[in-house]
Amino acid sequence: MNALRGQLELWRLHLAVIVLGAIAELIGIQKISFGIGAILLLPLLYAFVMSAVLNPNVVPALGKFIRQKEVKAASPLIVIAIMPFIAKFGTTIGPAIETIIEAGPALLLQELGNLGTIVLAFPLAVWGLKMGREAIGATFSIAREPNLAIIADRYTLKSPEGTGVMGVYVIGTLFGTFIFAILASLFASSDLFDPRALAMACGIGSGSMMAACTGALTEVVPTMKDEILALAGASNLLTYATGLYAGLFIALPIVEKLYNATAGKNDLANASKKEA
Question: Has UniProt tagged this entry with the keyword Membrane (predicted)?
Fold first, then answer.
């Protein structure tokens, strides 16, 4: 009863979700064609933008309707809302198990792509943005929930490394769906990559990003919808299963050694100057 009463007190939040969801669906899928491909704007993106505008931390004037109470309550509800979507992926994996087995080596090897954050992001963070130890947490992974757990256990989230991983996590949560939906539709419509490869790339361990990515792919290649959903779901599960260990035993030690060998020397030099 207390739980029900608590949800009734959050009627503003539930009303906003219903209204914004309806508006987003009425707008529908919009296609912007240009050059080598096209960008698909999905209802998920419209709902995200409108929800962000209603956030009192973004537009304080709207705090009279959506209060901080609703903002705090909305975060855990994301997990509940995404559960039916994850369940749907589970039902598509079984019938397509032969396709997944055939793509087995490709699925396993593409998990090595998670280490690409080190190659691409670490040099930019350390030498371009002049980040301190925050660079370790920010660049050793794509900063999803399992990666947060690794940093929280090793350094705590209040440490510089924790600040780095939390920063990337928040940015990924806010803009990841935008970026994934746009990139997926662009690459799929340009015929630069096989749709199955793009489907596997959708599974990075984030339900919302995978939803945006597969949604865009299935709109561009509707005839491969079941295969795309199956491969993306399998890839996502593998990322959760292997990504944790890859981050803990491979990526994090590599980033720590790289940081200590490069920026770490500068930190020690600066510390010595301050003491002097």
Answer: yes
Q: CA-to-CA distance for 203 and 226, rounded, in angstroms? A: 15
User: Average pLDDT, stretch 187-209?
Assistant: 81
Rg of the Cα trace of the chain? 21
Q: 220: which residues sit within 8 A by CB, 6+ positions away?
A: 38, 40, 184, 185, 188, 189, 195
Question: Is the entire prediction scored with pTM above 0.85?
Answer: no
Over residues 73-119, the pLDDT tens digits come to 776 666 566 667 656 656 655 665 665 566 567 666 766 777 778 88
User: Do 39 and 57 touch, CB atoms closer than 8 A?
Assistant: no
pLDDT for residue 38 is more than 60: no
**N residues, the chain:** 276
The domain ranges of the chain are: 2-275
